[in-house]
Amino acid sequence: MFIVLRHDRREIVHFNVTEHPTAQWTTQQILEAFPFDTAPRYLLRDRDAIYGKTVQQRIKSLAIEDALSAHRSPWQNPFVERVIGSIRRDCLDHVIVLNERRLRRILSEHFSYYHTCRTQLSLSKDSPKPRTVEAPDLGKVTAFPFVGGLHHRYGRLAA
Q: Does residue 150 register a pLDDT over 80?
């Protein structure tokens, strides 16, 4: 799995999965994550061998400053490590993944929940995409299922 996370709002900008990642595939993911002039100023990444010469050249061509974490130091990129752990605990530990297409669909649904409903303590108990507060007079509280009922968002349903 390849994930690009925006640190300020803990938003997953791009993700993709493959059974056999290559440097070319990773280069393509970077291009898809940052189309046109949306490239960030910095890219914090680990020292995985998948980031070969072609990936490093692509990062440089997008005018991104490449920041590497120390060897075997996952704590230097805590936000991404936390998201990956949450994906495992909140989603993948509870489903059976049959193939890449199904994993992609499950993750898409989970990220929809993650972005709009899952609260983050670091965001003052808000979700990556800010939510509005619903007034009590809007109706009865109802559960809206996400990821096939694995998670729920609770909101008011107008009568």
A: yes
On whether residue 142 sits in a domain, the answer given is no
For residue 39, being part of any structural domain is answered with yes
Q: What residue type is assigned to position 142 of the chain?
A: T
Using the structure block, give the residue that is written with the tokens 């009568």: 159
Q: Could you report the per-residue pLDDT of 20-59, keeping only the tens digit for each? A: 999 999 999 999 999 988 999 999 999 999 999 999 999 9
| Contacts for 119 with CB less than 8 Å, ≥ 6 apart | 125, 126, 127
pLDDT at 159: 63
Which distant-in-sequence residues (6+ apart) come within 8 Å of 115 by Cβ?
A: 11, 12, 127, 128, 129
CATH code of 15's domain: 3.30.420.10
